[in-house]
């Protein structure tokens, strides 16, 4: 190093010594700032490439389905043909400390602050959690038993070509339930025994004593449906036990393809936002890839099995009032027949937890549909829930609002929820917008 080169360095060094002597704090603050800038520069230059980590069990159901990747592989097979797959469901672990008298229903709250997006909302299912039972089991069991006796094949039915699939589902339940709920079920040499009701079901005899879907429905709280693919590539509802659906009847949908089930029910956004993704899912889903989804409705009566506020479950034809031409009219069945703005005590929160899985032997796609049913006045006591639910209801588009019947109850419901939200704000339980209280979906 030459003298000329070293001189500026010496001058700078002397100046730093003087600053350090006069204002040591300023010197150290400057040194800290320079260090931070150097660290930021290094991080920017050598930042590693980000890798997207997919968490299939925790998607955001309010994001359009097209924005999410799928790992489901399409099988190479001819539509309508299924070759049995060598897959066995993992053995279920016993539910810890479960008791049919004390196990509380899981408080699903599958709604978010707006905006509302129409999606399938699928998430991965853990095999242990296939069927959920709780202390509502005795009530559900009795309701189902009564409905089977009163309505028979209006609620439980299996097409001839779906019989083997329905038997496969029954066998799966008889294997799973004693594993997961050993205090309620016990395996027998011929089937299963219910320790609460003292019912024993023989599933080995042929023919079976009753429709396999009927027997399956007696074991659990869920409604059941199995879809089977035909050569046209469509999936058809060919086996079902729909006893507690509230708003739809198996007799109306039995034998229909998946697309018609949804269009006949005026499901919002089905053609534009759901049909393609749903059809792709059904074609591709494999036995080892079970999924879950949740939904919710508002009901303005307390009947779990059928919401009588939207009309009779079995509307009859009668002569038109004042008609002199001999014509008849059928009773209207739908939200238009519901009484408007009933008192809040008549409002109920109805939520469904649906599982979907493919049966390995028959290839049928099974829906289990578990309904949770609670008074709105109870649900609204939970911290953060009234504000979140009010926001969700307000965010429905016109088609969703019409489908869910908001016009018949919206004024009373939203006034009540807003009031409960204000109470929670005043108590300091939530902020004004309440969004910080939003938990992990679907709770």
Label this structure with key terms.
seven-stranded antiparallel β-sheet; 443 residues; single chain
Structure description:
- By secondary structure, the protein is an alpha+beta fold.
- 35% of the residues lie in helices and 15% in strands.
- It is built from twelve helices and twelve strands.
- The protein has helices at 3-22, 24-46, 137-151, 163-180, 212-219, 250-253, 258-264, 270-284, 376-379, 385-395, 398-404, 406-426, and strands at 123-124, 156-158, 185-187, 191-194, 200-202, 223-229, 235-241, 291-299, 317-319, 328-330, 348-358, 365-375.
- The chain has a seven-stranded antiparallel β-sheet with strand order 1-8-11-12-6-7-2. The chain has a three-stranded antiparallel β-sheet with strand order 3-4-5, covered by helices on one side. A two-stranded antiparallel ribbon has the order 9-10.
- The protein is globular, with a radius of gyration of 30 Å.
- The N and C termini lie far apart (70 Å).
């Amino acid at each position: 190093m030459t003298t000329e080169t070293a001189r500026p360095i010496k001058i700078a060094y002397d100046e730093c010594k003087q600053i350090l002597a006069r204002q040591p704090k300023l010197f150290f603050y400057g040194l800290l700032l320079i260090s931070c800038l150097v660290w930021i520069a290094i991080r920017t230059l050598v930042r590693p490439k980000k890798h997207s980590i997919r968490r299939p069990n925790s998607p955001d159901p309010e994001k359009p389905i097209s924005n999410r990747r799928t790992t489901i592989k399409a099988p190479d097979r001819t539509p309508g043909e299924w070759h049995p797959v060598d897959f066995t469901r993992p053995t279920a672990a016993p539910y810890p400390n479960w008791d049919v008298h004390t196990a509380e229903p899981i408080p699903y709250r599958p709604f978010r602050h707006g905006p509302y997006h129409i999606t399938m909302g699928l998430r991965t299912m853990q095999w242990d959690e296939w069927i959920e039972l709780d202390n509502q089991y005795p009530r559900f069991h009795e309701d189902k038993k009564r409905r089977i006796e009163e309505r028979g094949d209006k609620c439980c039915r299996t097409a001839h070509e779906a019989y083997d699939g329905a038997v496969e589902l029954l066998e799966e339940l008889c294997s799973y339930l004693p594993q997961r709920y050993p205090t309620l079920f016990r395996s027998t040499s011929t089937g299963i025994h219910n320790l609460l009701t003292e019912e024993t079901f023989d599933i080995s005899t042929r023919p079976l004593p009753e429709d396999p879907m009927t027997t399956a429905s007696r074991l659990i709280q869920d409604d059941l449906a199995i879809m089977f693919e035909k050569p046209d590539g469509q999936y058809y509802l060919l086996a079902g036990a729909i006893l507690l659906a509230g708003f739809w009847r198996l007799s109306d949908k039995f034998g229909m393809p998946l697309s018609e089930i949804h269009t006949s029910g005026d499901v919002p956004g089905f053609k534009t936002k759901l049909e393609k993704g749903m059809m792709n899912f059904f074609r591709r889903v494999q036995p080892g890839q079970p999924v879950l989804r949740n939904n919710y409705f508002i009901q303005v009566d307390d009947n779990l099995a059928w919401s009588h506020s939207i009309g009779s479950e079995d509307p009859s034809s009668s002569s038109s009032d004042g008609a002199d031409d001999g014509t008849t009219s059928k009773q209207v069945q739908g939200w238009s027949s519901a009484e408007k703005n009933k008192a809040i005590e008549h409002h109920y929160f109805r939520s469904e937890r649906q599982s979907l899985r493919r049966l390995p032997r028959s290839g049928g796609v099974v829906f289990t549909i578990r309904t949770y049913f609670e008074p709105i006045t109870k649900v609204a006591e939970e911290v953060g829930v009234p504000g979140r639910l009010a926001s969700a209801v307000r965010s429905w588009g016109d088609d969703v609002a019409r489908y869910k019947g908001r016009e018949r109850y919206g004024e009373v419901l939203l006034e009540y929820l807003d009031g409960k939200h204000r109470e929670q704000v005043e108590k300091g339980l939530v902020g004004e917008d309440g969004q910080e209280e939003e938990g992990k979906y679907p709770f």
